[in-house]
Amino acid sequence: LLVLEKWLARNQVQKLVLAVFQRETEFLLFLEELQKDVSEEVLKELFEAYVCTRNRRVADVKRRDGCSQRFSLDVVSALRKLLLRAPQRAQVLLEFFQEEQGTHSPSIQQHCSLQNIFVEFLRDSLKSLQRLQCGSEISELDQRELTDIIYSVLSMVTFEVEHQADELQHLFRELLDVCWAEGSPLREEKLLSCMLRKRSRGLLNLYSSVLMDKTREKFLVSKSAGKGSSEQLDTERTMMNLFSDHKEASSWKTVYFYCLSSSKHFLEQILVTALALLKREDFSGLSSLLRREFNPLSRLLVLLGWTHCQSLESAKTLLWTLHKTQVDLCNDSVLKDFCDGLWAQVEVLEWCIQQNR
């Protein structure tokens, strides 16, 4: 091997051949380690699939031999058992197929097929976990072991969002359903730490969109009539519910993903929601929204929303709610002076109306 390596290392083409040969040898040695866990037929199919991913020059020929087809049921069954008994080896197998994937590579189909086996395993594990919680299933695995397996598989799989969007959306919805169930051993923060890693922006965006849909479903069980588009009203109700929640850490986490999926900064979303409440003269909702972290925005909203006041009474209520009742701890002296001037004008107008009666 050393002599062959020296001979192949003379030019770039030979170096490439050497790398392919070396990696294929490593894969054969890895399959040899798997002999005690899987059958010879499964090993043969895995090797044929791997050779297909490496030999791009003969990809068309290999396609006729069925290299781009899905794995057989025997391979699927063997991999699921491997995930339970030796997840580290399953991870190594996935890495072998992942290395050579590319946009135009035939390996992308094999890699996604392999990933889909992992995704289906996760979904089945979640269903088993739910049945265990309900006491409707007797299993060799207890809740803690099953939870650890779910975390382990999530941490090893690198998802292809472009090619697996539908499968991942279903998986994320089921993960959130289990996480949000009362007494669930799964923790959303741990799931995120397992999934999010380098180059996972697409995965994060997909998770955000699923979380946004689930959050809307959670808060918007009953929809009341109101002005504006349905999407606008949904956003307002969702933001109001999130910041009416006493669990601040959970609210901020959800708002982060919610705003990420809508491509808006959270302060922009808060201002838009507050202005919508102001236009409808929902001052109690406005006060509730601004009662904690966003209290420093109160006087800014007076400036932004002043022209939306439809009457002297609404203008006075706005100033009373967002200006007169505020404690001067926000270092907003310019805005305070502006609001003091508006309050003086309102008092003058009120005096004029009384004198004309």
What would you note in describing this structure?
With 357 residues, the protein is mainly alpha-helical. It has 18 helices and no strands. α5 crosses α7 and α14 runs antiparallel to α15.
In terms of quaternary structure, what is this?
single chain
Q: Give the SSE string.
A: HHHHHHHHHHHHHHHHHH
What fraction of residues sit in β-strands? Answer: under 5%
> Average pLDDT across residues?
77
Distance between the termini: 107 Å
User: Mind describing the biggest β-sheet?
Assistant: none
- Name the overall outline: elongated
Regions with pLDDT < 50 over 5+ consecutive residues?
57-68, 103-107, 222-229
Number of distinct beta strands: 0
Helix content: over 70%
- Number of helical stretches of at least 4 residues: 18
Structural class: mainly alpha
User: Any idea what the radius of gyration is?
Assistant: 30 Å
Main features:
about 350 residues, mainly alpha, about 0% strand, elongated
What order do the helices and strands come in, and which of them pair?
Blueprint: H1 2-8, H2 12-33, H3 40-54, H4 59-64, H5 73-85, H6 87-99, H7 107-134, H8 143-156, H9 161-180, H10 188-195, H11 201-219, H12 230-244, H13 248-262, H14 266-279, H15 283-289, H16 298-305, H17 312-324, H18 333-355
Summarize the structure.
The chain is mainly α and 357 residues long. The protein has helices spanning 2-8, 12-33, 40-54, 59-64, 73-85, 87-99, 107-134, 143-156, 161-180, 188-195, 201-219, 230-244, 248-262, 266-279, 283-289, 298-305, 312-324, 333-355.
